[in-house]
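re the bet — no i am not wrong, look at it urself. input seq straight from the record:
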Amino acid sequence: MTNQAENLSKEGQRLFHEGAYIEALEKFEAAYEAYQAAGDAINAGEMLNNLGVVYRMDGNLDTATEKLEQAREIFNKAGDKGREAQALGNLAPLFSSRGDTEAAIKAYRQAIEIFEELGEKNLLGETQMALGLLQFRRGDRAIGLASYEAGLLNIEKPTGAQKRTRALLKLRQRLMGG
């Protein structure tokens, strides 16, 4: 049963990356049911997380939130802090898109705390950068820039644009005597 669930999950991921969201939803839902039947709560939670992300991209925010909250609860009960933090990071933009900026900031901060604890520098950096953008858009410019900068410095393999931004930040620091 687990092999079938794994195949469904992989197929769902392939379809998701191709942009075939409806088909991906069907595969993730079937994989969720197969993992549930096999008693594999962690992978069932992972499928709920995947479903939440796809529903969010499809604009179905209520269902996305429900699936991600369920995934978070499963990961929390299982003590899987890394996956719990990822679910929190996926919930934050949902809260933000609904106008609940405080809940979004809280979710990002909880995820950041867990990623720091686990030493997950890339996920920590990505989450700090997302928090920084939210804070900046909210009007907290200095705090947002500081969060974004902290995140950028935690990315272990930055993209070209991130490398250029880092260089500008270092230049700013030198010019300001830091």
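see?? The chain is about 85% helix and 0% strand. told u. also The CA atoms of residues 25 and 76 lie 24 Å apart. so pay up
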